[in-house]
Amino acid sequence: MIRLDNIIKTYPMGKRELQVLRGINLDIGKGEMVAIMGPSGSGKTTLLNTIGCLDKPSSGKYYLDGREVSNLNRSELADVRAKKIGFIFQTFNLLPQLSALANVELGLRYAGISDRNLSLEALTKVGLADRAHHRPSEMSGGEQQRVAVARALVKKPPIILADEPTGNLDSHNGAEIMEMLTGLHRDRDITLVMITHEARIAHYCQRIVHIEDGLITAEEKV
Ligand code: ADP
Ligand code: MG
Question: Which of 23, 42, 160, 197 is deepest in the core (most CB within 10 A)?
Answer without folding.
Answer: 160
